[in-house]
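Q: Is it fine to ask for two folds in a single conversation?
A: Yes, each is treated on its own. Send the first.
Q: Here.
A: Result:
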Amino acid sequence: MKKVIYYEMDLSTESEIVGTYPQVDVPQKYFKVPNNFETLSVRSFPETNPNLENFVFKRAAKLTEVLSSHMLHSSIGVFVDKKFKDLIENFYVKNFQFYNCSLIAADKNLAQQLVENHYFFLHLIYANEILDFSQSVFEDLKTDEIVKIDNEEQRAPFLRPVKLFLKETPDLFRSPFNIALLVSESLKKALEEANISGILFKEYKNNEFYIEA
């Protein structure tokens, strides 16, 4: 058994990087638009692609490769530019889809940059099928006992994952049992070397991950 380190990918909030947080807002009357982003879930992909047109880039915001949004935050997915999209397509990303979107800005120069540097919305859903439950370990928060289960259906809400055994090791996926976006050491290094802005990393410590040695 070999331990695998993953890093949580968070969105930057520092004003010197993003200008203002979040950087992107929903258009006026957006929730009256058919097929708006409320169709998106962390458990499944929608039958029809969501309408993600004319999202508003705030006046005080700075342009980064990954953008923050109050309504469409990382619990569902993230706005990313083509540079980010092209980079991660060279890695193993689990259970994801890219959707077309459009961003508008009041500043003419910024609006032109948004046209030239196209953005997409990256939607990730749970990838719990990569877990080997028979080898994973959980803590019963009611009794403090360490327990094992055979499948996801047996996991009660009070069973906290301690050691999760992976059948495969994606470079980017949504963490089982919470909303964190996890990246491998190799993808983290590639994103940092490419100077992808708008994100930061910290070692994920909610539970440990293991694979066959």
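Q: Second one now.
A: Result:
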Amino acid sequence: MITDKKERIIEAATASFSQFGFKGTTMDSVAKIAKVGKGTVYSYFENKEELFNEIVDRAIKQMMSAGNQALQPGIPLHENIRHVLEAILAFRQNHLFIFKMVQEARDIQTVPVIETIEKIDQEIIDYLKGLIQQQIEKGETIQQDPEFLAFLLFKTYLLLISDWEKHHPPLDSSKITEVLQRQVY
């Protein structure tokens, strides 16, 4: 029963943050959506930031799971990285909570939300770094530092699917794979 209330609160907070953003969500609004007293919300979460961080951590776990599901054994690293990035960024774009946070960080520049987006990006970079290190341990020759390469691949991929497409036709996946391959080797 206790867990059910906590889950209801988390679901209500996710809905509120997704609709109204970090700035527009209050513990009172979360309590109303969850149909519990405000004191009940505070019995599980000390403040809005703690509740927000719980939701962020869950979203990151789900996003990394999407990345794991995209991995395909036996294909080159650069292709796997493209598959993983496609899966992670599709999750990020389709997950209403994360989409709203990216929007709020860009448009309103709410400090806790900007820090959250930076945290999410760093989690993605760390994940890619781990993939690169695994390949190095298997004997693959990679000239770059794994962390630098992970950062470079992630940021390049973001630019190719977002900024490039603002003024150019979208690139097909084979072109993106080619660009990533040149960065890896």
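Q: Anything structural to flag on that second result?
A: Two points. The first helix runs from residue 2 to 24. Residues 18 and 97 are 4 Å apart (CA to CA).
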